[in-house]
Structure formats: structure tokens, C-alpha cells
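Thread: Modeling a multi-component assembly for a lab meeting

Hi all, long-time lurker, first post. My supervisor asked me to bring a structural picture of a complex we are working on to next week's group meeting, and I have zero experience with this. I have the sequence lines for every component (758 residues in total). Could someone generate the structure of the whole assembly? Inputs are pasted exactly as I received them:
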Amino acid sequence: MGDPMKKVPVREQDPKVRATNFKEVCLGYNAEEAVEEAQRCIGCKKPMCVEGCPVSIRIPDFIAHVKTGDFKGAYEVISEASALPSVCGRVCPQEKQCEGRCIRGIKGEAVSIGKLERFVGDTARANGWAPSTAVEPNGHKVAVIGSGPAGLTCAGDLAKLGYSVTIFEALHRPGGVLVYGIPEFRLPKDDVVIPEIENVKKLGVTIETNVIVGRSVTIEQLIEDEGYEAVFVGSGAGLPKFMGVPGEQALGVFSANEYLTRSNLMKAFREDSDTPIMRAQKVVVVGGGNVAMDAARTALRLGAETHIVYRRSEAELPARAEEVHHAKQEGIQFDLLCNPEEILVDDKGWVCGVRCIRMELGEPDASGRRSPVEIPNSQFVIDADMVIMALGTSPNPLLTSTTAGMDVNRRGGLIINEESCMTTKDGVFAGGDAVTGAATVILAMGAGKAAAKGIDAYLKEKN
Amino acid sequence: MYQILTKTEPAANIFTMVVHAPRVAKNCLPGQFIILRVDEEGERIPLTICDYDREAGNITIVFQIVGAASLRLSKLNAGDSIADFVGPLGKPSEFCETPIEELRQKSILFVAGGVGSAPVYPQVKWLKEHGVDSEVILGAKNKDFVILEEEMRAYAKEVHVTTDDGSYGRSGMVTKCIDDLIAEGKHYDVCVAIGPMIMMKFCCLTTKKYGIKTVVSMNPIMVDGTGMCGACRLMVDGKVKFACVDGPEFDGHLVDFDQVMKRSAQYKTAEGRAYLREQEGNTHHGGCGNCGGEA
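Re: Modeling a multi-component assembly
Sure thing. I ran the full set together rather than chain by chain. Output:
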């Protein structure tokens, strides 16, 4: 037994090796390590971790099963609340959620709930366990728009209640951000994402790809012509934002969404893909969130010296702690407290550098974060032949512009009733990034779950 | 999977295919496009919709071989299937939303260059079906590359064919044809110009002289085409616009063509590499010195 105050360490690919490949960074626990880590859970009567979980997994109960080696029992407990344990175990910001509330964390390290969840999900897949499916169909049809975390969760929960659910996906592959956004080295597609989506299908959910709702079919047509009684909109975040600084239209400036979509969805990192991706010598990624980390670590793996430019300090980085830690280990350089003023362009129109200005932290702003203030005359230049903007997104106007009566807030997010999750259009519900703007996988899943409840209550009342 | 019903080659390396895609055929309108992926390794390629049959659920596409994906597409035959086919994407043409009475007052000129005839055709047809007349300039390199002429004549009031080498119809570029028609006493209120980027750029410079409002269809680099990746951004009137959701049609007098053309060159080497790899297989080692690849 190791130090009981500390987590059982998890095996990872060596940073020097993994910086050159797209295989998964974290290797996860084996059975022995998982049981040992599970022993650290003291099984609180009033578990704070569950309150910290957006989908309310009965955490101490599943860990109790792991303790005794009953991994199937553990999987059944998680499956009540989540169809995507192998995904969440890998990408949730546990330190801000379940693990952030763990009583063990007061004096030592929190129980490694995420790694245990991942272990249970991976073990289930290796053994071919799937969530139980025996439900009597109730004869009611629900349409779900988007097959990302919000849509998959909403669809899975409704299927478990007996609804006949079809998910409409605009891209050629289901999964949303799990497929186009999060890189292979953090979330393997063939081994993790696709099997968990298959589990959602096993619950009875149908997924129709290549359907862009708002264009191929409108929400009204889904309701009036195709007989869907309720619609859930989980269409995701939308279009990338740019800074508006001079030189931003130069060649070699990409949005993180484009860069990551090429690499992840279209597999441009592989030699056998038709889809091109630019390979650069020195890359500057602007932004400090998970998307910025993913883009930077992808660029590094494609052979570039990579810098992250972020205007606040390390403490304010919105990315998961583990991603920042991994990025540093791999050799990503963090240029913190500085902000681009201009993208420098060579005579052929290509990026040749970024002129930044140094910042210092002032008073806390409305979000509670200390706002960055420019230090006069502190400009400096970082050489670069590629710049990736990872500054967040603004909502895609497609659905709201083609659907009457679906209102949006000031920022373009869909307005919903907090409790029922219904939009301002009767029978149309929404959740995830389409409502909140860019957030996390697990918050989208929580929203999908809440909406499934809202849809069930709405249809019960109506029928 | 989306089945190919017919395939023809109206000009060298230009193909027409009718594809069964009921969801696209049900709601598409002139001006919109589709994205397809030939197979599992294929790129997502945007193509304009040339014709549609709502009842049968079919879409006609016209494409020219420009890269690895379109080369593989050209090798498929009637009876084969395309892995993915999504649409309609983008906004319909502006006139689909314009009151018909207003359109009937206008003298409308279409300028189609090369495969640009494909997206022009459904617009001309749609207008005629709504009782609106239009004229078409059909421009091509030489007489072998004039496509859709008969189809166009069935719906347009007048079709003016012009070839760069004068081998058929009038002689010269489409811009010369515009100048000539106006010199001959024609008058136009609106112009819709679709074709290669360079043609649209010069078309706009020409129509600007005459103060003719000109709509162009931008088909830049695109990946998802649904409003997510931002690859298709361009500057219109000094603002960032996305061709996939804000377009593909824009006011041609406000588009920064030079910047779009530069951006389109961004992946040229990589696309060329994929094309050559496809065509020459293992025999291609980049030694030709022409493709700029491999190094």
C-alpha cells in the first residue's frame, strides 16, 4: 500500500514519447490499482461528491462495488446515471466537480473518482457489458438535434423511459465535440467514443447522420410531417470567434475548431487521409481553455515548437488542471500575461510572427476573475509561422433563423425555462452549449439529462 | 449511403451525376450546395446543386476533377454509392425571398464561367418557373467546355455563349461579353456571376463600372460546412463572414477577392500531394519538381 493520503498514481505514456504520437496519454488503472484506490473512499453518509456531479452518479456506491472487485455491479450503478463513463472518466474537470468536493481532499488528495469511473467503463467495454435495455415502448416519438454529449444523454435517458428517439446529426459521424473537437490522445475514438455511442444505440436510439436540421428538414417539419411530439436541441456551440487584430486574415491563421476538425474528424494527422492540415515550425495558440490545450498539443505532435499565449496568469487558465500539466510535461511553452496586438505578415501574405503586449492583473471583473490590464510599452514579438485562435465561439444562427418563436438571449444562446428546459417554442427543448455557450462535456450531459426529465413531464401532461 | 443513378461526362474531366438523396431534394432551393464524402478516407467536398427532383428525391451535381476526392468520385458509376451526402447547405438565393412582382420588373443577367454553369442553371429555371425572364452569358475555354447550353436555352430568354478562343459563339472572356452586350444597347439591373474566383473578381470590376448590383457565389475552403469550423471565412465589406452560414452568395462589390484567392492557395501543396498520391500511387516520389510536394 502506498501513502493513503495520496492517489494511487496512474500510468502514463512518457512525455517525450507521447509528444510524437497520437496514442492516449493516460493509460488508466488496472484492476489491482483500481481496487487499491477504491479503498481510499470512506463512503460518506452524505456524499458531497454526488452533489458535485452534474449527472448525479451514486459515486460512493459504485466505488463500494469496485472495492470488492464487483466491477459489473459498479458499471450498473454508473449506468443508471450515465451512458458515457469511459468518456467522462477521461474528460470531466473532476477537480472542480466530484473530486473537488471529496472529504479526502481536505487533508490529502481526493479519491481519484475520474480514473475509477474510467476503469469501470473500460472494463465494461472489454467484457461486452452494456446497459440493461428491457423497456416497454410507450409509443411516443422524440427528435434530438445533435449527437454530442447533450444529445446522446438526453436520447439515452428518454429511450430508457420507453420513448422512440431519433438523433439527427449534421456531420457524417455521430459524437459531436467528442469526435471533431477532442483529440485522439485524450479521448480515443474507435476504442472509447464509438463503443459508448453504440451503447446509446443499444438502448433503442436511432442516429441519422448527414441531416442538418434547419436546412435538410426544419423543426416544424419534424413535428408536423414526421410526427415527433417533442424536440431537443443540442446543436452545440457554433462559430469560432476571432480577435479582430490586424493581420488576422493572413495565411496560416486558423481557428482551433478548423485545426482540430481537420485533425480529429477528418484524421488529417494520418498520412492516408485526403484532408490536408498545415504542418508548421513554430505555432502560437491564443487562449487558455481546453480547446487551446488540445490545439497546442496537436500542433506539437505534428512537429512544431508550440507556444500558448494567454492574457491572464496560470491560476486563471480555464483548462482542466491535468491538461495544463500534461501540456507542460510535453514541452508546450506558456507565455502567460500577454496578449496579441498584431499578427505579423510576410510579403507573401503568410504569418511570420505575433506582436504581443505584456499584461498585469487588476481588479476582479464581473466573472470574478481578475481582469488583465496592459503594461504600457511592453511589446515583444514571438516568431511564428502559424497562429491558432482558441477564443471560444458564438452561436450558430441556423436553427433560430429557420424556426419561428425560438428566442435567444443577448449572447445568442437559446432561452430556456430553468426547470423544464423548454425553449420559448412549445414542445422544443434545449441544453448544452447551444444554451450556455462553450462549456464542458459533463455540463452538456447534465443539461441533456434535465431536458429528458422536462420532455417526459411535458409529454405525460399532454397525453 | 447515397446511390448514384446516372453519370455522364459532358466535357473532359467534368462529370454530371444524379444522386438519390431525398432529404436534400425535399427542401433545397437555388443557390444552395451540398457536401459529400466519397468514402471513409475522403475529404468533405462542397459542390453546388445543379438540379433537383423533389418527387423522385434526386439531386444533380456537376463537378470537375481538382483533387484526390473528386478524382475518386469520378471513378464511381451508376449503381455505386457515395458514403455521405449532406444538404442543402447555405442560404438560398436572395431572389427566392424577393416578391415575384419585384423580380419581374428587373432585367437579370447571369454570368456562368465553366462549371459555374451548374449553380446558375437551377436559378434560371426557378425564375422561369415563377414567370421571371433572365439572360445568361455562358463562358468557357473553348467549345468543348461549354456545358448545360441546351438546358439553359430551355429556360432563359437569351443565352450568349462566349469562348476564350472564339471556337464557339462570341469570342473572348465573359467580361468582354458584358461590355459588348451593353455596347449593343442591353441594360441590366442585377447580375449573378458564378465561376472561378478570378472570373468573379473581374466580372465584379466590370459590372461596377456600369453600376449593376452583382451577386457572387463563394465556394472557398470548407470543412464541416454547417457553421462550426470557420474555415470558410472571408472578408465582406471589412467584416468576417462565413460562406457556409452567411452565404454562399454575397454582394460581389463588397467581397475581398484577393484575400479569398490567397486563402484558397493555403492548402494547394497538400491537396496536390493527395491528388498525385492517388493518381500515381507508389510511383510518385515528388521527383517531378512540379508539384511542390514531398519536400
